[in-house]
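Quick check before the chapter quiz. The format below is the same one you will see on the exam, so make sure you can read both the input and the output lines.
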Amino acid sequence: MRERFFENVGTETVTEIRKGLFGDVSVCRYRFMVGCVAYETEAASLEECRKHCAEWLKKRSVAFSGHRKLQGNPNRVLPCLLSEIRACYASGYRLFYTGGAVGFDTLAAEAVLSEKRNCPDMVLVVAVPFNGQDALFSQSAKLRYKRILEEADAAVILSESYSPECYLKRNDFMLLHSSVLIAYWDGFSCGGTSYTVRKALNGKRVVVRNLF
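Here is the expected output.
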């Protein structure tokens, strides 16, 4: 998953330089950029540079997961969602991952895009579980999804076709690259959001903030 991330999310610049008294030491000079976020380092190999970069980005990344159907008026969820996004940004978080599904995913993506107008270094990444996931969306949902993809800083298509496990793999991808999960989970429903929240809590490496 790490290689897929670097190939699809941002732009890598890799230069081999020579160091040491006699120029006999080869070092990889590395730069990764997504949106306005840039990371630079030097290490013995590209693999080591990528490892350091992934760790650095994870500490600055947030994922979203929530139900496709929001209870009551979605506008009641939005103020809490915006508050969490702003709090994360104020704490140094810059990358925000959404899965692109209808419901909470869409609301979260649009909230990030709204905040980007005042915070241009905020980065939205859409983790697409499979190519054409919007095939069964309503027409209005398709239009919102299309706009999100067009305005996002990056989109990672994790599979070219549907499979029964593709949504969970998408959620695993987002958890792998994030240190905070902003969720909208009722606490008992089964499904992708339940899986993601429970996995984050069990792993104890991702902070969960449930807005339900």
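If your answer matched, good. Residues 56 and 110 are 25 Å apart (CA to CA).
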